[in-house]
Each structure stands twice: as C-alpha cells, then as structure tokens.
Amino acid sequence: MSHRSSRRRRVAGAFALILLAAGLGLLFWPQLLGLQRQAIIAQVLALRGVALAAGAAAAVLLLLLVLLSRRARRAAVPVLVVVLLFTGAETAVLAGRGLGDPSPTATRTDGSTGLTVLSWNTGGDQPGAERIAALALAQGADVVALPETSEATAARVAVLMRAGGRPMWVHNRYFDAVLKARTTSLLLSVDLGRYALDLGAGSTRRIPSGVFRPVDGSGPVFVAAHPVAPVPGEMSAWRDGVRWVADQCTGSNVIVAGDLNSTLDHWDGLGRGGGQLGTCRDGAGARGAAAEGTWPADLPAQVGAPIDHVLATPDWVFTGFRVIGTADGAGSDHRPIVATLRRSG
User: Fold this and answer.
1) According to the model, what pLDDT value does residue 75 have?
2) Based on the structure, what is the number of domains in the chain?
3) E strand residue ranges, 250-315
4) End of a domain among 97, 130, 149?
5) Taking 70 as the threshold, does the pLDDT of residue 330 lie above it?
6) Is the dihedral of CA 119, 120, 124, 128 positive or negative?
7) H helices of the chain, where?
8) C-alpha 172: how far from its chain's center?
C-alpha cells in the first residue's frame, strides 16, 4: 500500500512537472502554436522583462529551499531546473533583441535623404505642448507622431516649433473630439512638402490611425498608427489593428510611427518579403534596442513592454534608435522614442 502510494506521488509529481514545463514553454514561445495574439497570452508575452524577473525570483526561492530543506530537495530540484531553463531562455531572447542602441541618435546629416522621427503617446496631451515641442526641437525631429494628442495641442506644438526654427505642418485624425485617447496627430516638417490623409486606406478600429501621402507623390508615405490595446473585449479590434498596420507596409518608401500596442513577438506570421510587419522592419530591432520597454513609464525600461515603434520598408536604413527616459515624469504612461533613418542606396 505504501509502495503504491509512493508511486502515485511520483507519477503525480512528474505530471505536475511536465505541466509546469509545458506552461512555461507556452508563455515563452506561444508562436510555436500560433497563440501569440490570443487573450492572456498576448498580454503576458508583451512583458518578457517581467516574466524574466518573476522567473529569477522564483529560482532564488527554490534555490534557498533546496539548500535549507533536505526533505523538499528531491521535489524542488527538478522544478528549479525547469525555472532556470525558462529564465535562461528569456534572458537569451532579451539579450539578443538588445536594451539600447550604443550609437547616439543624431539629427539629419545627409541632406534630404535622412529623417529623424519622434513618436510619443502623450496620454491625452498630458505632457503639454511646451514639453512636447521642446523634446521635438531637441531631437531635431522632421516627423512627430503623437497618438492620443488633440489637434489643438498639436497645433500649439507646431507654433512653438516654428518659433524654434523648425516649422511643421499639422495633421490630425479623430474618432471622438472629446475623448483625447481617440485622436492621433502627426506633425511633418514643411521641408517634406504638403501631405494629405488617404481616406481610402482606412484606419485601425476604436482608435484612429492614418496614412498620409505626399501631394506631389515624391516623398515617403507616413503612417501614424495606434491599434487599440489588447484588453478584454477588444482583442478582435486589436488583432485587426495590427494586421492593418502590416497591410500598410507594402511596396516601398513607407515609414510607420506610433503606439502599436504590440511587440516583435505579436507580429509573428504577419511579415512578408523579409519584413517583420508586412515588409517593414522595426527600428528598435535594427539598432539593438527591441527589449527596452516604452510602457508603462513608471516601470524600469528593462522590464517594460516595448510597444512603441518606428518601422520602415527596406529602402530605408535605420542609423539610430533610442527610448527617451528623461520624460518619465511628464504625465504620459509612455516613453517617447526617436529614430534616425536614411534612404538606402
């Protein structure tokens, strides 16, 4: 009887260990089963840094248990091994994606072929026009994507940038003139020429995005993007929004900037022609900063979610990318990002 009971315990322990390993494996790489855009998994996947920190904390506790309790050692050691494998795998992925571009992000140095793109979800104008304009001027921005920023604030930013020697055209798209979370603004340097919203390109659902094309047809196409967050009740709209962004990344001469509410992991299966999202490549990934979190701003960048992006088709090369941490107390729950690009060839 005792032998049977002991055998049942061993079988139950082995089954539990297999379940733990399978669960952690699923959280680590749900792409294997095509689950990267499913509810709960998508949210956990966005926070690999948090998962790594949790795994490391669990490993420390298990190691203490192994060292301090001989009775628990037999059960704890296999669990510790599984947790260490999980944390090791997460560490490898995050290290491979990088926590910062070592090269400085500079303003344009090669004439009209180079661009500096700034993106900041302002959380409904929270930092204020003066703070936004000061940052854009300091970065020498040619393009400023401002999700959750009203037209009035964007216009004020443009006035301040003009006074600072960098005049901008103001574009805005909104679904709700009252709720600032449902509006997206885009500022473009007057040096780029006149642009117009392409109404035929559509938009993401719930929160507006826009495709802006040069009136004379000679400049890059700019996409100010903001798919809705993957929260309960909005998963379908979120998936459609990410696919909409991928659909805009076709052909050549396209630059996307904004709060995409998604990471490289969520894009698996949506790339084509060597691209990560449509034919576009991610600036953070290109410059070794794709593991640096942009949301929420009150968490260290090392554990935050890298969901704000600048993307471009292959005819653009990223020469710099940086998550800006100096604006963490400005009121927005997002960190701004800045990328520099030049035309290839």
Assistant:
1) 87
2) 2
3) 254-259, 281-282, 308-312
4) 97
5) yes
6) negative
7) 2-28, 41-45, 48-68, 70-97, 129-139, 151-163, 235-248, 283-286
8) 22
How far is the CA of 310 from the CAs of 31, 47, 95, 117, 292, in angstroms? 23, 19, 20, 8, 14
Tokens 């055998």 belong to 7
What separation, in Å, do the N-terminal and C-terminal C-alpha atoms of the chain show? Answer: 77
- Verify that 175 and 206 share a domain, yes or no: yes
Burial (Cβ within 10 Å: 0-12, 13-18, ≥19) of residue 317:
middle
Q: Are strands 337-343 and 114-119 parallel, antiparallel or unpaired?
A: antiparallel
d(CA 176, CA 181): 8
71, 97, 123 - which closes a domain? 97
Query: Residue type at 214?
Result: P
- Asked whether the whole model's pTM tops 0.90, one would answer yes
The verdict on residue 182 lying in a domain is: yes
104 domain-assigned: no
Burial class (CB in 10 A: 0-12, 13-18, 19+), 2: exposed
For residue 106, being part of any structural domain is answered with no
- Scan for tokens 């005819």, then name that residue: 315
278 and 324 in one domain? yes
Q: Report the CATH number that the domain containing residue 253 is assigned in CATH.
A: 3.60.10.10
More confident site: 103 or 302:
302
Q: Are strands 195-197 and 254-259 parallel, antiparallel or unpaired?
A: unpaired
**Nearest-5° angle of CA 157, CA 162, CA 163?**
100
Res 111: pLDDT: 45
Rounded to whole angstroms, how far apart are CA atoms 282 and 309?
A: 7
Length of the chain: 345
- The answer to whether residues 225 and 175 belong to one domain is yes
Question: Residue type at 14?
Answer: A
Its domain, for residue 229, covers 111-343
pLDDT over 80 (residue 102): no
